[in-house]
Predict the structure.
Amino acid sequence: MASLVEKVNTLISANLHYLVDQALKSNSIAVIQQYIREVENNLQDLSEATITVGGQVKTVKRKYEEQQAKVGELDRNIDLFLQQGRDDLARAAQSQLNSAQRLVEAYGSQVEQMQREYQSLLDARLKLEAKLTTIKQERQELEALLELAKAKEITAKTMKSLDDLSGAGDADVARIADSIRARLDRASAEGEMRAASLDKQMDEVLGRSELDAQLEARKARLGLAARGG
């Protein structure tokens, strides 16, 4: 009984917020399911224990009431025996009365103790049932939340895969298209830059040749051709 009460108190004092956080972190309700199983199993044991103790309370209470009735009867009989001058019967009845009174005290103590225990079990059962109801409600919300999270995760992975192929969604298509255009613009700019550089080199070469030809003609006219440039 003591071990059962300890287990029940542990389950009652469990931090449901912590369990929910663990479920969210692990992306699984396994920890919640485990707690529910433990609560249900211990709740069944607790119910059986409560019924047993409740039955024992009734049994002890009935014996207590029977001994109380016996005490009253013996007490009356003693008076009657004394009035009849039967001290021997009165003495025997007094001995029985003393034993009956001790039993009444013992049964009375047992009834009080067992009644407290019975009430404690009833309270624990109510608390555990309330805890079970709460966590089951949390489980339903968690299941919906985790399903949504999984759906978003799958969607994200799917969209990423599509991104790798051809994009996903208008925004992604536009982004990829812009990226392609940017790369084309860069390639075009690099080509234009190289072309401009080549044209410049060609212009420089052609310009130099023309200048050289002009200088050679001037040298020939001046009679300087023989001396070279």
Notes: The radius of gyration is 51 Å. Confidence is low (pLDDT under 50) at residues 165-170. DSSP finds five helices and no strands in the chain. The longest helix spans residues 87-165.
